[in-house]
C-alpha cells in the first residue's frame, strides 16, 4: 500500500489533520460550538471556489474565508452563540455562493465533489508540507490560549472577574477552529468536517472524564479513524471519506453505548 | 480595617438605576448576608465589587484600594447557571481551570498549582467528589467544588452569589455551615447573597438588605425591624419572630417565611 507515493502523501496529510482536528475538536465540543465549526467549513467552500475562479490555490481561498468567518463569528460572540438560524443561513448562503463561482468557472463536477467530499488521495507532497505548517500554527495558537480559554469555557463569569478577556478568547479560538476546519476539508471535504472535528472528540468525552486524557484520546481516535479509513479505502476501492465518516460515527456510537450502560448500572 | 466600602455609589444596568447613592462599610472578617428581592441589585453589587461594572457615581473600595478587575484578594462564586451541570468532565479539571487560568499558555498542571487545588478541595471536603464527572454530582456537591474554586489564590474577601439556589433545605444547611467554618478558619470576609434570611440566620454577623435602590447594613436585630425595612421599601412592613425564625410581612401578607421564596417578592 505504501509503494504508491499518493498513498504515502494521503497517510501523512490525514495523520497531520486528524491530530489537529481531534485536539481542536475536543475544545469545540466542550464549548458547545460544534455547529459553528460545521458552518465554518461551508463558509470556506465559497472561498475555495472563489479562489479557483481567480486562479489561486483553493486551500488559501479556503483558509482566508474560514478565518474571516471565524473571527467574524467570534466578534459577534454571545449574540451569535445560540442563533442556530443565523448560522444556518450563513452556511447555506456560502454554499450557494460557492455553487455560483463553480458555475462561472464552468468547472467539472469532480472539482465540486473534491471540495464537498474530500480528495485525500489527490494530496501532493508539497501540499503535505503546507498542511503541516498550518497545523503547527493552529496548534501553537491553541497552546497559547489553552489556559484562559479553558477557564473562560468552564466558568465564564469567574474568568471575566479574574481578568480574562472573554471576547478575545472567543475570537482567538474560532480563528484556530477556522484554520483546523480549512485543513480538515482537504481530507474529508466541506460536508464531512463534522466527522473529524466532532466525532472523535465527542467519543473521547463519553469515554473519559479526565481533561488531559480526553484531549489525547480525541487525537488518537481521530488518527485511528483517518488511517483506518484510508486502509479500508485502499482495500475496498470505496471512497476514503466514506470510511472515515463511517468509522467516526461507529466509534461515537460505541462510546455512547458504553457510557449509557455504565450509568444504568 | 474595612474590607469593603461603598461611598455614594450609584449603579445602573442598561440605563436603569439599581442602586442610588448607597454608602456602607463592611468590617474585615464579617460574615454578611446580602438579602433583597429579585432585581434589588445583589448580583449587580457583586459585579461592581469585582470591578466588572463601573459605578455611575461614587467609589467602591476593596481593602482600601479602588475596585478593579482581576483583584486576587477577591474570591467569587457566580450564581449557578447550570452550564457545567451536564458536562462529562471530572470535577477536578473544572476547579483546576481557575488556577492560574488568567495567564496565557498551556496547562501542564505544575506541582504548585496542583498543591493549591488540593488545598482548596481538602478545605471543602471535596477531594473524593472531584474525581467524579460533574454530570453525576448533585447540586450541593457541585456547589462544594465551586466553593473550592473560589478559594484558589487564597482570597480575603469571598463573594458568594446565591450559593443556595436550587438546593433542598438539608443541602442548604450543609453549604451554609461549610462556608461559616471556612470563613472562621481563614478569617475571611464573606458576602453571601440569599433569597431566604432564615437559611443563613444562624451564621450571620451582619445583614445587608437591598431594596428600592437603597441599602441597609447592620446586625440582624438592628436591620430586620419594621421601621428600617419599611423605610427601605417605602411600604408598611412588619417583622415577626417565631421560634428563632424571622418572618417579614408586608401589607398584612406574609411574604417571607422559612422555605418560601423571596422575602418581599410579592410586596
Shape of chain B: globular
Mean pLDDT of chain B: 86
List the uncertain runs of chain B: 257-267
Order of helices and strands of chain A: HHHHHHHHHHHHH
What is the helix fraction of residues of chain B, given as a range? 25-40%
Low-confidence segments of chain A: none
Note the main sheet of chain B. Answer: 6 strands, mixed
CATH architecture of the largest domain in chain B: 3-Layer(aba) Sandwich
What's the end-to-end separation of chain B, in Å? Answer: 37 Å
Q: For this structure, what is the CATH homologous superfamily of the largest domain in chain B?
A: P-loop containing nucleotide triphosphate hydrolases
Q: How many domain units of chain B?
A: 2
Specify the number of helices of chain A. Answer: 13
Please name the CATH topology of the largest domain in chain B. Answer: Rossmann fold
Q: Tell me the Rg of chain A in angstroms.
A: 18 Å
Strand percentage of chain A, roughly? under 5%
Can you offer a commentary on this structure?
The complex is a heterodimer of chains A (265) and B (267). Chain A is 85% helix and 0% strand. Chain A is mainly alpha-helical. Chain A has a domain at 11-189. In chain A, helix 2 packs across helix 9 (166-188). The radius of gyration of chain A is 18 Å and the shape is globular. The mean pLDDT of chain A is 89. Chain B has 267 residues and is an alpha/beta fold. In chain B, the strands form three sheets. In chain B, strands 6-7-8-3-9-10 form a six-stranded mixed β-sheet, sandwiched between helices. In chain B, strand 1 and strand 2 (16-27) form a beta hairpin.
Amino acid at each position: 500500500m505504501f509503494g504508491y507515493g499518493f498513498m504515502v502523501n494521503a497517510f501523512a496529510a490525514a495523520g497531520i489533520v486528524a491530530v489537529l482536528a481531534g485536539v481542536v475538536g475536543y475544545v469545540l465540543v466542550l464549548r458547545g460550538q460544534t455547529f459553528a465549526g460545521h458552518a465554518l467549513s461551508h463558509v470556506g467552500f465559497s472561498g475555495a471556489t472563489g479562489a479557483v475562479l481567480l486562479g489561486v490555490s483553493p486551500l488559501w481561498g479556503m483558509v482566508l474565508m474560514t478565518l474571516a468567518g471565524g473571527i467574524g463569528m467570534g466578534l459577534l460572540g454571545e449574540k451569535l452563540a445560540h442563533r442556530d438560524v443565523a448560522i444556518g443561513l450563513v452556511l447555506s448562503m456560502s454554499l450557494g455562493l460557492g455553487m455560483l463561482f463553480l458555475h462561472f468557472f464552468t468547472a467539472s463536477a469532480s472539482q465540486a465533489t473534491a471540495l464537498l467530499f474530500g480528495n485525500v488521495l489527490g494530496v501532493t507532497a508539497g501540499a503535505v508540507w503546507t498542511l503541516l505548517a498550518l497545523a503547527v500554527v493552529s496548534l501553537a495558537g491553541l497552546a497559547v490560549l489553552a489556559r484562559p480559554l479553558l477557564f473562560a469555557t468552564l466558568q465564564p463569569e469567574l474568568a471575566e472577574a479574574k481578568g480574562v478577556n472573554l471576547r478575545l478568547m472567543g475570537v482567538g479560538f474560532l480563528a484556530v477552529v477556522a484554520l483546523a476546519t480549512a485543513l480538515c476539508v482537504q481530507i474529508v471535504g466541506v460536508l464531512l468536517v463534522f466527522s473529524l472535528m466532532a466525532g472523535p472528540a465527542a467519543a473521547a468525552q463519553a469515554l473519559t472524564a479526565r481533561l488531559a486524557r480526553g484531549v489525547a484520546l480525541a487525537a488518537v481516535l481521530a488518527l485511528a479513524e483517518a488511517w483506518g479509513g484510508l486502509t479500508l479505502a485502499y482495500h475496498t476501492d470505496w471512497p476514503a471519506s466514506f470510511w472515515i465518516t463511517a468509522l467516526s460515527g461507529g466509534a461515537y456510537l460505541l462510546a455512547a453505548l458504553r457510557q449509557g450502560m455504565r450509568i444504568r448500572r | 480595617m474595612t474590607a469593603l466600602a461603598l461611598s455614594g455609589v450609584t449603579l445602573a444596568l442598561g440605563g436603569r438605576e439599581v442602586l442610588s447613592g448607597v454608602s456602607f462599610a463592611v468590617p474585615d472578617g464579617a460574615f454578611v448576608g446580602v438579602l433583597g428581592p429579585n432585581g434589588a441589585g445583589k448580583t449587580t453589587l457583586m459585579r461592581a465589587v469585582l470591578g466588572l461594572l463601573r459605578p455611575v457615581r461614587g467609589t467602591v473600595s476593596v481593602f482600601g484600594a479602588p475596585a478593579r478587575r482581576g483583584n486576587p484578594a477577591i474570591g467569587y462564586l457566580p450564581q449557578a447557571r447550570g452550564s457545567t451541570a451536564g458536562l462529562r468532565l471530572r470535577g477536578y479539571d473544572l476547579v483546576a481551570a481557575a488556577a492560574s487560568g488568567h495567564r496565557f499558555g498551556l496547562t501542564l498542571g505544575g506541582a504548585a498549582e496542583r498543591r493549591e487545588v488540593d488545598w482548596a478541595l481538602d478545605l471543602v471536603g471535596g477531594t473524593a467528589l472531584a474525581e467524579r464527572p460533574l454530570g453525576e454530582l448533585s447540586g450541593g456537591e457541585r456547589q462544594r467544588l465551586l466553593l473550592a474554586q473560589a478559594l484558589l489564590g487564597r482570597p480575603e474577601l469571598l463573594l458568594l452569589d446565591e450559593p443556595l439556589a436550587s438546593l433542598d433545605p438539608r443541602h442548604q444547611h450543609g453549604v451554609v455551615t461549610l462556608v461559616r467554618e471556612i470563613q472562621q478558619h481563614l478569617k475571611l470576609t464573606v458576602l453571601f447573597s440569599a433569597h431566604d434570611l432564615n437559611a443563613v440566620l444562624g451564621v450571620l454577623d451582619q445583614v445587608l438588605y437591598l431594596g428600592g435602590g437603597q441599602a441597609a447594613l447592620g446586625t440582624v436585630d438592628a436591620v430586620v425591624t419594621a421601621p428600617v425595612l419599611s423605610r427601605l421599601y417605602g411600604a408598611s412592613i412588619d417583622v415577626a419572630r417565631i421560634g428563632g425564625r424571622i418572618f417579614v410581612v408586608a401589607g398584612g401578607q406574609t411574604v417571607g417565611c422559612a422555605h418560601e421564596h423571596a422575602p418581599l417578592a410579592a410586596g
